[in-house]
Structures are given as C-alpha cells and as structure tokens.
Amino acid sequence: MNNAAKPVKLKDLTKTFTTATRGEVKAVQQVNIDIQPGEFFTLLGPSGCGKTTLLRMIAGFEMPTSGQILIQDQDVSSKTPDKRDIGMVFQNYALFPHLNVFNNIAYGLKLKKVPKDEIVKRVHIALNMVQMDDFAERVPSQMSGGQQQRVALARALVMEPSVLLFDEPLSNLDAKLRVHMRDEIRRIQKKIGITTVYVTHDQSEAMAVSDKVVILKDGIVQQVDTPQRVYQHPANEFVANFIGKANILDGKIVESTETRAKVEIRGVVFDVPVYKKRAKGTDVRVVVRPESVLVGKQGFTATVTKSVYMGTTQDYRLKFEAWDVEISDNNPTSKRVYDEGEEMAFSFDPDSIHVL
Amino acid sequence: MSIQETGVQSLKRNKFSEYFQQMRFTFRDPILLVSVLSVLIVVVMFILIPLFTILKESLFHQGKLSLYHYNEIIRLPYNLDVIWNTIKLGLSVSAVGTFIAFIFAYAITYLKIPSKRLFKILSVLPMISPPFVISLAAILLFGRSGLVTRTLLGIRTDIYGFWGLMLTQTLSFFPIGVLMLTNLLQNIDPSVEEASQALGASQWKVFTTVTLPLMIPGIANAALLIFIQSLADFGNAIVIGGNYTTMAVQIYQQGIGSYDMAGATALAVLLLLISMLGFILQHQVIGKKSYVTVTGKAAKDRVLIRNKKATIPVYTFCMAISILVMAMYALVPYGAFVRLWGVDYSLTWRWMKYVFTIGMPYIVDSTILSALSTPIAVILGLVSAFIIVRKTFPGKRLLESSILMAIALPGTVMGLGYVLTYNTPPLILTGGSVILVVALVIRSMPVGTRSAIAALKQIDPSIEEAATVCGASSNKVFTSVTIPLIKPVFFSSLAYAFIRGMTLVSTIIFLVSAKWQMLTVAIMNQVDQGLYGAANAYCLVLIGIVGLVMGAMSLILKKMSIDLGAGY
Asked: Which of A174-178, B305-309, B461-465, B539-543 has the lowest mean pLDDT?
C-alpha cells in the first residue's frame, strides 16, 4: 500500500441549512484549510461546531452551499462519494451485518472487479495490518466494538484511497480501548503515510494522534496549528478553555518589544514571551495553565477552597479575588499539601504565561 | 439576524436556489431520478387521479357543476340508512374487536398460560385467508341450512344482516389489533410495573393504574384501525349483509348493479372522507401521544403472571374464540366435499371436479395475475420506502402520505375510481389484464412500503454510506446492502403481495371482464347463488395455492439464511 499521499484543500467552504424551527443555520462558514500530503489532520470542537458536516462534505454526503473541495488540485465538489477515492471509518463501525469480515473488506474490491486471487491477497494484508488475521470468517455480531472498528479500518484501507476520513471512530468504545485504538490508528497511518482527516470532540485524543488540529466553533475556524502550539499558544479564550484547563486573568502591558513583554498581573510584573509588540498600558488577557502555577512561591496569596489528591497531581482551587484559580501540582508525594481553608502563596512560571 | 437585513425577497430567492442546488446534488445520480419518477408516476396515476376523478364526477350533473348527487343522498332515506348502517357496524365491530384483541395481546405477553403458539397463529390466520372464509363458515354454521341453527337446533332463523356482519367482521379484524397491541405491550419496560408493585400495588392495581393507562393510545389506535377496516370491508358485507347494506356494498350495487356510476360517486366520496378522518386521527392525534417507545426492546424479560384468578378466565375466553375460529376454518374444506349442506351431508367429489373443470380459468387467471403483480408490488414498495427514508426530493411528503393513505382507502372506492378514470380516452385500460394487475399492485404495495419504512429506519444510514465510500453506485448499494439487510421485510412483502392478490375482491370486482376472471369473484358468485359446495371448493383451492406458495417461499428463505450464516 504505497499510495502517493495527496493534499486536500478546502476553499471558502460554507454550508447553510434551512430548518423549520431555527431558520437559517450556518453549520460551516468560510472554511479555508490546506491539508498537506500524508498529514494527520484533526477537526476538533464541541458538538454542533460543524466538524462532522465539514467531514461529510469532504466525503460527498453533504452538499456545500458554496466553496470548493480539492483533492490533489482536482475539484471533487460535484462528484458522488463513490467517485471521490476516499476511505471512511464511521462512529458506529457501519459494517455490513449480513457479510462476514472477509466479505466486508472485499466488498469494494469486488465492485472494482479486482481479480479474485488479488482480492484474497489484499484482504489478508489489510487484516494483518489491523491485527485481525484470524477473524476473516466472523460476522460483525460476533465481535466486540473494538474488533469491529479494526475491520472497518481494514475495509477503508484495502481500497488504498487518496484520503482517509474518520468520523468520531472511538466514541463508542470504552476508555481504555479508546486509548489503545487511537495509538493503533496513528501507528497504521504513519506506516502508510496516508492523508487523514479525523473528527473528534475529545481534545486529548486530538492531541495524541494529530499532526495538525483545527478548532471549530459555530462553524468558524478558531485556530489551525500543531497540538503543541494550540495548547501553549491558544488563539483565543475559547481555544484556551477547550484545550485543557486554563486560568484566564486580566493584565496590563508595562513595556513591550517584538518578542518579550513586561506584563503586570494584580500588582506583580512578569517578563513573558510574546509574538507582537503591544502599546504600553494595553489591557490584555493572559492564560496560565494549572500546571504552570508555582505552589509556595511568593507572589500572590489566596485561600484554598478545594484540594483533591489525584495520584500524579494534587489539584487545588483557590479563591483569588474575583477568580477561581485552578492549580495542578505535580508529583505531590514529596511536597507539602495544602488543605481546604489554608492560605497559599503562589506565583506563575513567566515563560509559560501566554498573552492572548 | 442577517435575514431581516437582506429582506424577505432575497430570502425567498435564496431558499429557492438552495433547494434547486440540493436537487441537483441529489440527482447527480440518474438511477435515483428514474426511481423517484417511476414511483411518483404510479402514485399519481393510480392513486391520486382516480380519487380526483371520483371527486370531480360527484360534483357534476348533466355536465354542470352541482351538488345533485349529494342531494340525492339526503333526499333518499335509504341512503341515509346505508350511511348509518356503516357507522353503527364500524363502531360496534371496533369496540368488540378491540376488546378481544386486547385480551389476546395481554394473554400472550403477560400471562403464564399454555397454547400461546396457537393463539398467535390464530390471530394471524384471518389476515391471510380470503375474506369469505369466515362469512362462508358463518353461513354454514348459522345460516338457513346451518349446522347449528337447522341441524342441531331445528330453527329456521338466519344470520344475514347486522349480527352476521358483526360476528364475521369482528372475527376477521380483531387479529390486526392483536398484532398491534402485542407489539406495544412487549415494549412496555417491565421495571415500570415492578416499580408500581414495589410501591405496594397488587397485580390488579398494576394493571389498572400502570399497564392500561400506558396502553390507552395504543388501544385507541387499534380501535380506529379496526373501524377503518370495517368501513372498507366488502367481502363479508356482500356475502352476509343481506338487507343490511353498507356503503361499500351500496357503491358497488349502484355503480355496477344499476349502472349509475355518477350516483355512486357521492357515496364514495363520503366513505372516503370517513375513512380518511379515521386515518388522520390514527396518525396525527394518537400516533404522537404514544407513551411506549417502539425503538428498543424492553430491557429484560417480564415475569409472567401466574395468578389463577387472572389466567383461568382469560385462557377460557381466548380458547373459546380460538375454537370458534378453528371450527370455522375446518368447516370450509369439509363443506367442499359435502353434497348439499344442511340437507344431505354425504361426501362427494362433485364440487372439486366442478372447480377444476368449469372453474379452471378462474384459478389460472387469479394465480397468473397475482404472480405478475407480486414482484412489481414488492419492488415498488421497497424502492418507494428507500427513497422516502433516505433521500430528499420534491414531492416526497406527498408521495409518503399518498402511499400511507392508500392503506386506508376502501377497495370499492378505488375500484370505482379505476372504472371512471380508465374506461374513457386518453387511456382505456378496463377489460384488460393491465388494470387488474395495477389494482392488485396498488392494494398491496402500500403495506410493503410501510413495513420497509419501519425496517429502514432501524438501519443506520452509515452502513449504506460505507458501501458508497467503497465505490458502490446507488443501485448497487440498494441491491447489495439495503435489500439483504431488510430481507425479512422483503420476504414478508412477497408473501403479503401474493396473498393479497389471490384474496382481493373489493377493487377487482369492478374490473373483471369476460377475458380475465378472478377466483374471489367466482366464490362470491357461487355464494350469491347459494351453491355453497362450489364456493367451499373454490376456497379450498385458493387456500391450497396460497399455502403452496408460502411453503415454497419459507423454504427459500430458510435456505438463504443458512447460506448467509447464522449471525444475521
């Protein structure tokens, strides 16, 4: 399966529904995305953000109201799904219940009139890739959800499509299997190097598998970036809150260059990295992740309102003026633990403060 | 908010162009376009236009728009009697039939009693038998030369009229209520009733405070359904109604008997209105109020009630009805070999010989026409269900409601509509076989559509989408995924369409000709002339053909499910 990976380009893609109850609903608005060949690209967002609509437009099940979908610079917007050379894995597996595993995987090959011995060969390669070699004769109802999803993946892979689409493929699996399967999907994707578009609402899943993530809200792109940059440098408050936990506080620029700035937060001045120069005295919002709060370091003091032992961390909530500050203190076994009601001194790691 | 800014005008234009775009998107696929068009054409030509013709004819007299035909109904007290007869009978049959149906359904799902299989089979039997069997048997039992009335009791009374119709219609239509209510009762989560018991309710209290209230929408639904069936019933009404004339029979007698088609139209419109009212009530008002979810199965098995105070009376009741029905079904084959019922009970081959010589054309025609109409009805039914559930296209709502409405259309009304529409140019079909096949198709297709719609809604569309992504065109998806997935519906539609074809009488009685005859019409004529032996023999042959075909079909079904593996 050495298919040359292909790029996918979404140009001004918009989808508007007219519903009886809510009038016009803009499910997807003016989306422009370039997906590189071989990239694992994830559409991430809360339910109703338009990510599934976007994926189904790429697949050809939904019609864009306007805009274009290009696969390898070829506009496929007017093609039916069976002519788009895509593979798709569905949330509920969508295996054909009346066919066994072998025939499920062979289904598309038979339609293409691939010679019989080649079908057998290719199905077995696909089965081997998803580590389901011994299951060829089973029918879907005799398999667990995880096994069914592996077969569904094999069914998509066997066609050697230009693009592989995943529609929340792990959300019907239990937590442990979910982690295992996402690693599997990533492993196989890397091995084949196929361009992949993946839909999920689970941010940790998105972080774990993706080369790039797009965060959508109400059909509008919020940020397109690598998982690291999305976490460390969220484009706005929505992204900051959606990806991981975030403390968002008010600050003021004391002085600023192109790369560093002095920001005053509640009377304490921090020297933080920035990406553009801002005028002195500008009010800004800053994001501090819970694990970037330094417990016991002089700076601020506040009362602990919640203290929970989580094993790898000790999690606190502090009442700090008008805000609730969330803290995640690493490796608590060797540290002092604060109880609820105690006063705590804390500060922020300046390099981890992100100015929005 | 931007909607108000851009103004209503452009919103309309937007909506239109959006709609137009959606159409182009849907019909990227020519096969889909062809299927939608062919289903639409069939529905418009053979359901909507005939109904429209009746309505139009009823409003014209001597070439002018007038309410003359409606005035005639009010002017003649006889017609008012007919209307009142129909409604009185419908209400009575509906009340008694629903009551029996509920007891059967409750016994099957809730009680620990023997012979449940028998009750289940008996409750399906009247639906697959010709409409005459029960009436014929009722005449054999209680008629002028009846086994009970004349031979045992020695009285010379007769059953023709209200009570005869009441008996035969109730026995014919309660089974449909049993099926419906059994389904609903099975979907009540037993834990609701267990919760009531845990709160201190006795079994009787559980029944009256939980089970029964939960079932009220279902019961009302069943009652309406039986009411509609009674209104539309032609077979029983013509055989056993005697002087108690119902609207369905009057439409036929006026239209065909007195050659007064126009006069029959007003009555047909009235019957249509009452049926449609029942149908709309059933679907709109009550359909939405159902407390019982029909999606999943109940979470666990129900603990059956063993209390003898409940089981003994209910069992006795169900058994009594079952014995009556069984006796009736046994009587007809027996009667086929009796020389002269009520007078000379010696056995003879005479009637069977008669049926297989003089009656042969009827048998052959009926079988050929039913066999012809069956695949057409099944394919149309499945295709229409598929496009209704899975696709968006203009006229979809009209299509869906027309097909579902056609289930409730009285057969005589349809028959009248066909005669009025298709015995004048531009398209003359009467007298030939085409219109008979059309009638058989239209009378069985809607039921197939309905069950296929229900089955398709249970199947996740992503299974079909997965096939599309694998490179399957829309007709390939339909034949390689959709049909195999709804195989049980496919086969039950096949069986239903054939049985319906063999047993239909109301619509086709308007359409038979010297060239093409039907078995059911032959039976009716024999009963009319009092030749019960021949009528019985025809019935026996009809049941035999249906039995043979059903047997063959279930054999094929078994073989196919073995081939496809036990998993599905």
From this structure: B305-309
Q: What DSSP assignment string belongs to A209-244? A: H-SEEEEEETTEEEEEE-HHHHHHS-SSHHHHHHSS
User: Which segments of chain A belong to CATH 3.40.50.300?
Assistant: 8-240
Residue B295: pLDDT above 70?
no
Give the minimum alpha-carbon distance from B297 to chain A in angstroms, rounded to a whole number.
17
Q: Which fold has domain A8-240?
A: Rossmann fold (3.40.50)
CB contact under 8 A, B465 and A90: yes
Chain segment B16-32, per-residue pLDDT in tens: 676 777 777 767 777 88
Per CATH, domain A245-355 is 2.30.30.30: no
Backbone angles phi, psi at A322, to 5 degrees: -85, -5
Asked if A220 contacts A52 with a C-beta cutoff of 8 angstroms, the reply is no
What is the C-alpha separation between A338 and A323, in angstroms, rounded? Answer: 19
> pLDDT band at residue B345, thresholds of 50, 70 and 90?
confident
Give me the pLDDT at residue B63, please: 78
Residues 398-437 on B with a CB inside 8 Å of A are none
* Interface touch A81/B468, C-beta < 8 Å: yes
- SS3 of residue B100 by DSSP: helix
User: What is the distance of C-alpha A247 from the center of its chain?
Assistant: 21
Quick: pLDDT tens for B153-165: 777 667 888 999 9
Nearest one of A291, A246, A282, A234 to A262, comparing CA atoms: A282
Is B471 in contact with A159 (Cβ distance < 8 A)?
yes
In angstroms, the separation between the Cα of residue A152 and the nearest Cα of chain B is: 9
Q: What domains can be seen in chain B, in order of their start residue?
A: 70-247+313-335 (1.10.3720.10)
Contact (Cβ atoms closer than 8 angstroms) between residue A5 and residue A38: yes
CATH 2.40.50.140 placement within chain A:
245-355
Q: Taking Cα atoms as reference points, which of B27, B175, B35, B173 lies closest to residue B91?
A: B173
Least confident stretch, A240-254, B152-166, B291-305: B291-305
Selected for mutation to probe chain B from A56, A82, A166 (highest B CB count within 10 Å) is A82
- CA separation, residue B320 to residues A311, B107, B148, B286 (Å): 71, 14, 16, 32
Cβ–Cβ below 8 Å for A139 and B22: no
Kindly indicate the confidence band of residue B221, based on its pLDDT and cuts at 50, 70 and 90: confident
- The pLDDT of residue B6: 40
For residue A79, which residues of chain B lie inside 8 Å, CB to CB? 28
Rounded to the nearest angstrom, the minimum Cα separation between A187 and chain B is: 23
Q: How many residues does chain B have?
A: 568
Residue type, A252: K
- The pLDDT value given to residue B12: 52
Cα A7 from Cα A12, distance rounded (Å):
16
Q: How far is B284 from chain A (nearest CA, A)?
A: 19
pLDDT over 80 (residue A57): yes
**B470:A107 CB<8 A:** yes
- DSSP code, position B253: I
Distance from CA of B472 to the nearest CA of A (A): 6
| B22 in A contact zone (CB under 8 Å) | yes
Whether B154 contacts B257, CB under 8 Å: no
Question: CB A100 to CB B484 under 8 A?
Answer: no
Task: Note whether A2 contacts B: Cβ–Cβ < 8 A.
Answer: no
Return the structure tokens found at A51: 């990510």
Q: Which value does ipTM take for this structure?
A: 0.78
Angle at B204 between CA B198 and CA B205, to 5 degrees: 55
Size of interface A-B (CB pairs under 8 A): 93
* The two structure tokens encoding residue A87: 């593979």
